[in-house]
Amino acid sequence: MVARCRSFPVTAYRTSNSEKGTAMTYEPTLESVRAHVVPDWFHDAKLGIFIHWGLYSVPGWAPTTGPLHEVVAREGWQGWFARNPYAEWYMNSLRIPGSPTASYHAQHFGADFPYERFAETFNRDTSSWDPSRWADLFRRAGAQYVVLTTKHHDGFLLWPSARPNPFREGYHASRDLVGDLTGAVRDAGLRMGLYYSGGLDWTFNDRVIADIIDLFMGVPQQPEYVEYANAHWKELIDRYQPSVLWNDIGYPAAANLPELFSYYYNTVPEGVINDRFTQAPVGDGPPDPAAIMQAIAQGMLPAPPHFDFRTPEYAVFPDIKAEKWESCRGLGYSFGYNRNETVDDMLSPAELVRSFVDIVSKNGNLLINVGPMGDGTIPTEQAERLEALGAWLAVNGEAIYGSRPWTRAEGTTDGGIGMRFTRKGSDLYAILLDTPQQPQVTLTGLTIPAGASVTLFGYGDIAAVQHDSGLTVTLPSPLADAPAHTIKIAGGAA
Ligand code: GLC
């Protein structure tokens, strides 16, 4: 059956549909949930903050092996898992004999110290955490939404669930960290989304993940887990009305996802669902490793039959994509806090800005991750990078928020500086990904309507002359160094 339309009392949520006076009621069928339209807010938002916070934030340790795809290309998946730079994987890395994490753990906590005992420290230290300071930082960074890990692969819950873990008593935060952050984020005017690891829960399936295939074979498939994960998602939906359902790794094969998705859309019509609810075929044999390897090499899991947006990880799409996408990555090589990371392992503020602009020009959002320490302190180097992004957005945000890709994403200046384009209505924005050293710069191949006004953000009107080879602009001299400069051409996208 197709999603039905009925009149809907518009209250807290506005959807593209409700703005037109109606809202969908979704049926628990694939066809129905597929009728969901990605809401404008998600297209407009561009920047979200990802937060990985949990028991792994207490040891906060991983080798700084490198960025995902480079490491896998160099060392294969076995090499990746054995020296996993994702600190939130501590519990798994610990169980790989001879791994750097196993040695670190033995030295600092003792080989017999159970991972679960980090809960004592975590619960003690989070009692004085102030969520409004986080929300304030995220707002200053220019983010429009936040996504928090409510349960990562270790299974520890960041909210007081009515469905506690059946195998580990008291294995949850003693404070409602999800609720407290949700409140603070909304008070700051941002939207709140929730991450849940539906595909891996090492308390239900303790298979050590030492190679890529273990990732898919490690998904708990027993009926108790299907019920548990579904109950959690529904509880999170009911309690916190998340604007984003950000599932990870996959989902048990027996789960009825159209039922879950329709429940979500009927509760939060403006919500969006990511593309990591993949249900691998089980029963007749293992998932097809070749297909899985190929999809992962492209920076993503195989897509499930329904999603609102794609999620390349430590990867970006090279061209404009019609489908909405969101690239996620840490500021360094890890999502969870890693005390080994220095600024040398992190994106510089300029790299962060430029990558963000590149993503936006191709129809993506950036979900940039912070990894707070166990007590909720956001390391200075991470906060500084967010502040730098916010400072750039304070001047250039008009070219970003609410923009859409133009007919092409990339260009260059005559001096070889990279450009990215965005548009809003009929206005065109050409964003130079560096500071030109000469005042005269030609935006190669660009033709604009006669008489269009041309401005440089942060300065004002600038002279522009149309040539056959492109548009030559005269920039103020000296021009202060910035990671990127925006030239607005009013009516240039008409
Ligand atoms: C992954 C990782 C993980 C991280 C995430 C973020 O697949 O397993 O630790 O949470 O994706 O994209």
Please tell me about this protein's structure.
This protein is globular. Helix 9 links the parallel strand 4 (145-151) and strand 5 (191-196). The strands form four sheets. A seven-stranded parallel sheet has the order 7-6-5-4-3-9-8. It has two domains: 11-18 and 24-399, TIM Barrel (Alpha-Beta Barrel), CATH 3.20.20; 410-489, Immunoglobulin-like, CATH 2.60.40. The protein is an alpha/beta fold. It has helices at 16-19, 30-33, 40-45, 68-82, 90-94, 100-108, 118-125, 131-140, 177-187, 212-217, 223-240, 257-267, 289-297, 349-361, 380-396; strands spanning 4-6, 23-25, 47-51, 145-151, 191-196, 244-247, 272-273, 325-330, 364-370, 410-412, 418-424, 427-432, 440-444, 454-456, 460-461, 463-467, 470-474, 485-489. The chain is built from 15 helices and 18 strands. Bound molecules: alpha-D-glucopyranose. Alpha-D-glucopyranose binds at residues 52, 86, 88-89, 248-249, 313, 328, 335.
Care to give the gist of this entry?
The chain contains 15 helices and 18 strands. It has helices spanning 16-19, 30-33, 40-45, 68-82, 90-94, 100-108, 118-125, 131-140, 177-187, 212-217, 223-240, 257-267, 289-297, 349-361, 380-396; strands at 4-6, 23-25, 47-51, 145-151, 191-196, 244-247, 272-273, 325-330, 364-370, 410-412, 418-424, 427-432, 440-444, 454-456, 460-461, 463-467, 470-474, 485-489.
